[in-house]
Specification:
Blueprint: E1 2-10, E2 13-21, E3 26-28, E4 34-36, E5 46-50, E6 59-65, E7 75-81, E8 88-90, E9 96-99, E10 110-119, E11 130-137, E12 151-156, E13 164-167, E14 185-190, E15 195-197, E16 203-206, E17 218-226, E18 236-246, E19 259-265, E20 273-277, E21 291-296, E22 303-307, E23 314-318, E24 329-337, E25 352-362, E26 369-370, E27 374-380, E28 388-391, E29 394-395, E30 404-407, E31 418-420, E32 426-429, E33 440-449, E34 456-466, E35 480-484, E36 492-493, E37 497-498, E38 511-519, E39 527-539, E40 545-548, H1 561-586, H2 662-675, H3 725-731
Parallel strand pairs: 5-11, 12-18, 19-25, 27-34, 35-39
Antiparallel strand pairs: 1-2, 1-6, 3-4, 6-9, 7-10, 8-9, 10-11, 13-16, 14-17, 15-16, 17-18, 20-23, 21-24, 22-23, 24-25, 26-29, 28-32, 30-33, 31-32, 33-34, 36-37, 38-39, 39-40
Membrane topology: Single-pass type I membrane protein
InterPro entries: Cadherin, Cadherin-like_dom, Cadherin-like_sf, Cadherin_CS, Cadherin_Y-type_LIR, Catenin-bd_sf
Domain Cadherin: 66-146, 147-255, 256-370, 371-475, 500-554
Length: 747
């Protein structure tokens, strides 16, 4: 039988007991069969060890003892698992388990270990291994903490007592299932009597009514959480809560003054500012917004009110110009009200206020004022200097009623056609006017008061020049008429010219000049004589003009844009052709075969003898067709660099230097080129300038055929086939003659 000693630590006491474990159990199976279970030395659930033990000796956790242990030291106890050998050690002889280090339940609450009993000499297991748990017993060693602190909360001002503000929550790392180490209780240390906290939930609530934001806006509250149910000896933690009262519309607007005094000068124009006023509202945002309006007063039609969007002030402006001489003071009544009203505080109203504004009009030195906003006069052209045009009139509207002087600004009458009497405003001409040159004259007249600040005002004067019959009539367009040579008498041209005869000819006379007298119906009547040019032209049967003996049209100097573009395009094309030609010449490749300078095919040889004619075939030696460099069987190439030189094949015969068998010569060259890799490629140009001899046709040269006395017979060319038909036609017939169709003689 096994004995397990468990040491339970509670405070300073240790209880030691033992547990007897049976070897086996029996279980009745189906049909009464007895099932045997494997033997186990021990089975238990857990051990306990207190945390934060600070004694001088290791803590005894428990003791393992097997009933096969006779105490002679042959049994060896082994411990493995979490912390085995470092935190927990076992006496392999006695089976005592000790904790060698201070344990912290908040770091690790339990450890899983495995125990086994083996023979000391053979390490053979005497009992199967068994797993057990060592739990760390909690003590109150952790104070409460507020993980989300400090806190910030907002609550409306004037809230009722008990209004919820915020809930704070503290945590305790101790074991909540063991004792009261994690049982927390909340209390308020700072913030009374304005706020309170529920001990079990941590909910903060208002404790006083009518807390006014305008009196105090922020409150600092300290909340404490204490474990052990709040009893003495418990640990505690605190957090700060900043509570801000938010605004509500609980204050109506108020003007600081009941009466405001303002003034405005009579020379101010409409839209100019007169003054400002503002109602105060201690509320914030929309709750403190104030709207203004004019509700009464004798100046409600002369002034207007707007609101400055930035300063929220009421701005009084001129709606119409005021006149000191007409009315010297005005009264306005202004109302300021909140547009957003909280129904909860409606009984605290009314949320508006009124103020009175007294506006006085100040006298200003005003410029003179013309009776009319503008003037329009008429005067006949060619009127003598000093002719009266019209009178303008202005007056000083001030109380002093100072006299006024008139003048015409020179920039409005640069040529000085007019003058004005400085005292009475009469405008007169200074020189005759011409309607045909300028039918209207627009000038300005300035009126300045004498004395005061010499202020002036201007008025526009429009002067129309009336027409008189002072210009004789004349042709309005070019005085030229085109007429056909075949025109019939009585034909009307341009509706006023009649043709009296026929038979006009451009060759006889191509231009006629007709003087015409023109009269108008004016008073007095005016007349002039103009000359009409009649040009005779050639026409077709439909009297469509074909040509006239007109003067040639001379092109203006210079070229048009299209001509310039055409010239430039031609220049560009010519340049492109030149560049292309140069590029092609540069890209022309050299021949692939390198010949020395002695190669006669690249030299010009001059002979001074005339030769023997067509039958002279001995003047040219065919040996010149042979490449001097090919005598040794090697023809150098430019396209490849040969590694080996091939000798002339003995099987291929080479014609003698003096041989005239060109056919054999060419075949030999072709065979050499096909079999020799060092020879030029198949597409190289090979030039053979020998005509051959021994042909039945003889020489085809025409050097001797130019003579007419040649006795050669070329009729045999007719039998050579279609290839020689052209030659047969040229040389086969001799009887030919040419007639001159002009004079009938042979040429």
């Amino acid at each position: 039988m096994w004995f397990i000693y468990i040491y339970i630590h509670t405070g300073v006491f240790v209880f030691v007991g033992h547990l007897s474990l049976h070897r086996h159990r029996q279980k009745v199976g189906k049909e009464g069969q007895v099932l045997h279970r494997s033997k186990r030395g021990w089975v238990w659930n857990q051990f306990f060890v207190i945390e934060e033990y600070t004694g001088p000796d290791p803590v005894l956790v428990g003791r393992l003892h097997s009933d096969v242990d006779s105490g002679d030291g042959n049994i060896k106890y082994i411990l493995s698992g979490e912390g085995a050998g470092t935190i927990f050690v076992i006496d392999d002889k006695t089976g005592n388990i000790h904790a060698t280090k201070t344990l912290d339940r908040e770091e690790q609450a339990q450890y899983t270990l495995t125990a086994q009993a083996v023979a000391r000499d053979t390490n053979k297991p005497l009992e199967p291994p068994s797993e057990f748990i060592v739990k760390v017993q909690d003590i109150n060693d952790n104070p409460p903490e507020f993980p989300h602190g400090p806190y910030y909360a907002r609550v409306p001002e004037m809230s009722n007592v008990g209004t919820s503000v915020l809930q704070v929550t503290a945590t305790d790392a101790d074991d909540p299932t063991y004792g009261n180490s994690a049982r927390l209780v909340y209390s308020i240390l700072e913030g009374q009597p304005y706020f309170s906290v529920e001990p079990q939930t941590g909910i903060i609530r208002t404790a006083l009514p009518n807390m006014d934001r305008e009196a105090r806006q922020e409150y600092d509250v300290v909340i404490q959480a204490k474990d052990m149910g709040g009893h003495m000896g418990g640990l505690s933690g605190t957090t700060e809560v900043k509570i801000t009262l938010t605004d509500v519309n609980d204050n109506p607007p108020k003007f600081p003054q009941s009466v405001y005094s303002m003034s405005v000068s009579e020379d101010k124009v409409a839209g100019e500012e007169v003054g400002r006023l503002k109602a105060k509202d201690p509320d914030l945002g929309d709750n403190g917004l104030v709207n203004y309006r004019l509700i009464d007063g004798d100046g409600i039609n002369m002034f207007e009110l707007t609101t400055d969007s930035e300063t929220r002030e009421a701005v009084i402006k001129l709606k119409k110009m005021v006149d000191f001489e007409t009315k010297r003071s005005y009264t306005l009544k202004v109302e300021g009200s909140n547009p957003h009203i909280d129904p909860q505080f409606l009984a605290w109203g009314p949320y508006k206020d009124e103020a009175t504004i007294k506006i006085s009009v100040e006298d200003a030195d005003e410029p003179p004022v013309f009776i009319a906003p503008s003037y329009t006069f008429e005067v006949e052209e060619n009127a003598p200097p000093g002719t009266q045009v019209g009178r303008v009139h202005a007056k000083d509207t001030d109380v002093a009623n100072n006299p006024v002087r008139y003048m015409i600004p020179r920039y409005t009458d640069v040529e000085q056609f007019f003058s004005i009497n400085a005292e009475d405003g009469m405008i007169t001409t200074t020189k005759p006017l011409d309607r045909e040159t300028q039918p209207w004259h627009n000038i300005s007249v300035s009126a300045t008061e004498i004395g005061g600040h010499h202020q002036d005002t201007k008025v526009r004067v429009n002067i129309k020049v009336k027409d008189v019959n002072d210009n004789p009539p004349e042709f309005a367009t070019n005085n030229e008429v085109l007429m056909c040579e075949t025109v019939a008498p009585g034909k009307v041209r341009l509706s006023v010219i009649y043709v009296l005869r026929k038979g006009f000819s451009r060759l006889t006379q191509d231009v006629y000049y007709l003087p015409i007298e023109i009269n108008d119906n004016g008073i007095p009547a005016m007349s002039s004589t103009n000359t009409l040019t009649i040009r005779v032209c050639s026409c077709d049967s439909k009297e469509t003009i074909l040509s006239c003996n007109v003067e040639p049209y001379v092109l203006p100097a210079g070229l048009s844009t299209g001509a310039l573009i055409a010239i430039l395009a031609c220049i560009v094309i010519l340049l492109a052709i030149v560049v292309l030609f140069v590029a092609l010449r540069r890209q022309k490749k050299e021949p692939l075969i390198v010949f020395e300078e002695e190669d006669i095919r690249e030299n010009i040889i001059t002979y001074d003898d005339e030769g023997g004619g067509e039958e002279d075939t001995e003047a040219f030696d065919i040996a010149t067709l042979q490449n001097p460099d090919g005598a040794n069987g090697f023809l150098p190439r430019k396209d490849i660099k040969p590694e080996l030189q091939y000798p002339i094949r003995p099987g291929i015969g080479r014609p003698a230097a003096n041989s005239v068998d060109v056919d054999d010569f060419i075949k030999t060259r072709i065979a050499e080129a096909d079999s020799d890799p060092t020879a030029p490629p198949y597409d190289s140009i090979q030039i053979y300038g020998y005509e051959g001899r021994g042909s039945l046709a003889g020489s085809l040269s025409s050097l001797e055929s130019v003579t007419t006395e040649s006795d050669l017979d070329y009729d045999y060319l007719q039998s050579w086939g279609p290839r020689f038909k052209k030659l047969a036609d040229l040389y086969g017939t001799k009887d030919c003659s040419i007639n001159d169709a002009d004079d009938g003689e042979d040429s």
